[in-house]
Design a protein that fits this description.
Elements lengths: L8 H13 L10 H13 L9 H26 L3 H6 L10 H6 L16 E8 L6 E6 L2 E3 L1 H8 L1 H13 L10 H12 L3 H6 L2
Antiparallel strand pairs: 1-2, 2-3
Helix pairs in contact: 1-2, 1-3, 6-7
Length: 201
């Protein structure tokens, strides 16, 4: 809803509230009138928020916060469906407060934990990389990657360090050199060195 001078304060706030309210899970939509009163208090009680900033505050603060919190909860419940699994993983998810409690308590300021990315699963059987024709040895979310594409996708900073090291010893990739030929040249150069022995070159 676009804020205009023709709309009353109450109409504006109810419209913004409805966008926020609809995001709440059905089983958590309790005491709507209390929640609406708490919502209006945030915007109008001294010092309040200037009317021209109401829509922006609603969208970028209140709506963004509840979306983020609900998304985190869903990810936890998807990954650890039972209380026992969450306990073993040392993950605690408190009960979702009533909407009015969330508003009155300034819960939009709550820190939302970041879930660690799923650990890659290493498989013994060889599969084709999902990005090229090479064999894939590392599986992430049911997609196999060769070492090159895994590093490129998930650890690009490591590639930059490696590229700088290779360049410093004259092993940077030539313009007309394929990735496979470059890899062979690097292995030949390393053969017999302590790095080559460690890498099996």
């Amino acid at each position: 809803m676009e804020l205009t001078e023709q709309l009353s304060d109450e109409d504006v706030l109810v419209g913004l509230f409805d966008k926020w309210w609809i995001l709440w899970p059905a089983n958590a939509k309790t005491a709507k009138k209390d929640a609406l009163r708490a919502w209006e208090k945030i915007f109008k009680k001294d010092p309040g928020i200037p009317r021209e900033d109401w829509e922006d505050f609603s969208e970028t603060v209140l709506i963004t916060a509840i979306k983020s919190q609900l998304h985190y909860r869903q990810r936890v419940f998807d990954k650890y469906p039972t209380p026992e699994e969450r306990k073993r993983a040392d993950v605690f998810v408190p009960r979702l407060p009533m909407p009015s409690t969330w508003l009155n308590g300034g819960r939009w300021q709550d820190h939302v934990p970041q879930m660690a990315a799923d650990e890659p699963r290493y498989q013994s059987a060889k599969a084709q990389c999902g990005q090229c024709e090479q064999e894939g040895f590392i599986e992430v979310n049911e997609v196999s990657y060769c070492c090159w594409h895994y590093t490129r996708k998930f650890h690009k900073d490591h590639l930059m360090v490696l590229a700088d090291i290779l360049k410093s010893i004259g092993l940077d990739r030539q313009p007309d050199e394929s990735r496979d030929d470059w890899g062979d040249r690097c292995r030949q150069h390393l053969k017999g060195s302590r790095w080559g022995n460690a890498l099996g070159a």
